[in-house]
Amino acid sequence: MTDTDLVRAIQHGDRRAVARALTRVEADPGGPLAAALYRHTGQAHVVGITGSPGAGKSTLVAALTVVWRAAGRRVGVVAVDPSSPYSGGAVLGDRVRMGRHHGDVGVFIRSMATRGQVGGLAQAAADAVRVLDAAGFDRVVLETAGAGQAEVAVADECHTTVVVVAPGGGDDIQALKAGILEIADLFVVHKADLPGADAAVAHLRSALDLGAPAREPGWEPPVLRVSAVADTGVAELAAAIDAHGDFLGRGEAWVRRERRRAEAELRRQLFARLVAPLLARADLDGPAGPVVERLVARQLDPRAAVDQLLAARAGAAGAAAAA
Amino acid sequence: MTDTDLVRAIQHGDRRAVARALTRVEADPGGPLAAALYRHTGQAHVVGITGSPGAGKSTLVAALTVVWRAAGRRVGVVAVDPSSPYSGGAVLGDRVRMGRHHGDVGVFIRSMATRGQVGGLAQAAADAVRVLDAAGFDRVVLETAGAGQAEVAVADECHTTVVVVAPGGGDDIQALKAGILEIADLFVVHKADLPGADAAVAHLRSALDLGAPAREPGWEPPVLRVSAVADTGVAELAAAIDAHGDFLGRGEAWVRRERRRAEAELRRQLFARLVAPLLARADLDGPAGPVVERLVARQLDPRAAVDQLLAARAGAAGAAAAA
Question: I need a labelling partner for B205 at 20 to 30 A (CA). Which of A67, A145, A241, B179 fits?
């Protein structure tokens, strides 16, 4: 199937085409298929769900999906679990927890447990969001294990970022210290039936009162108490996420976030095109040995190494042009 | 003072020169001074200390410093606290906790609470490590708040990475899930006098037994119980860190880690030279409007945008060459 046919089938909501496209962008992040899909995106409200492992994000996403489905929304979910020897659990976990949506054409769930480069995973996740966007899912959830680079990538890709903490365990403190206050549009104190939930809510609220920079003027990040298991607060959370989307859409904020997504995309693709090949070249044997080895031996400093790599590339381009 | 004079003064261990150089690399990461210093580096054992906020990393670093000083080591510390509205605490905290080393010429401590780009902070931290390395500190500790991109950068910059968890609070679970097992050469269960320390140790050990990929064949990451406050286990930790350094030095592993440091350096500098200017250009008005805006409007896809940016750059270079 050509990319053009696949794009058309995706737009018609063909689930097999969507599944095939997701597999393809995972294998070839930033490739031609993602480019062909790009113009058909921009309709979905992209919602990032992040926070500490153990905070119950997947259960929460499943519960949100139920609420949105009942309101007639189509919901796509991309769950990113960075390479971990304990993964596989992600895929299995989703199947179990999301099982009640099996057979519902208004829901599409994909776990990505890609090993390997963080950059490749971020690109694949962004592409997967776009596949679901192009397929007409109007809520696309990007769920990430809340630590490491994936967390930062979430805020770059999403219109609305929800930070989930569980009471106790210092998770609330961590949320404060890890600079995560800046990326959150909404906070959820999950497992709100557990002891310590009040303290976590109070802690977050006082932190916000202390003057964390609001990401958008005019939006006060709410702190919501939710228990997906007890089914309390889930509808309120869905409503708050929708309200944030409406808030963004009323002003310039939606466009600002679209701009940030576009910049993240350019950054990734420029890196892949310009930097990655030169890093590969730095490993190759040159007249004086591989650049990396000469750096290790302190025969060369990094600025001079970059100059040499750029000169070698210019030389190669010049030779190609002359031939 | 010229860079050459400053480099010479640093090599002679002039503390004011070291302080001045640290200020300068923080203001101009990857600049000429860092390049001039590079050839005089490569002697220090660079030790990363990372883990959740609240795990007591700074206290632990202070305690380690005491042990190493008693053994005649010179200890440099770079403490990185990514921009947080609650920062400033980092600087103050260090001053208080590290106060007992005040006036000791064998110790140099610098907090970096740089706001702004993560990339710039990583480069500044790497440069600061090199300043201390060039100044003859034989243990250079890079302490980072254990969340977000800084954590990943630590493993790239260090020979030995110590992951610190505190008992209870799900910190041990987080350590497992965040892919942090892969970056740890040693684990510390800190505040080992608190309840839950046994469980945390058992949890980490069983996780390691389950077959986390050892970063280096032949090295089994130990799990150490430490309480800096009660002064138990600190000497053992210092010995374990030194043993890891010796282990690396016996084989190819030290060189592999030096290579990784060099590659991280190249990656950062290539990004700053090649990608950052094109991202800036993508924001400028072009014949059909700014590239970023056309991406937002879905008039252009990211691959085509990258092609246009590269073509515009080549055109500008050609015009400059012809002029």
Answer: A145
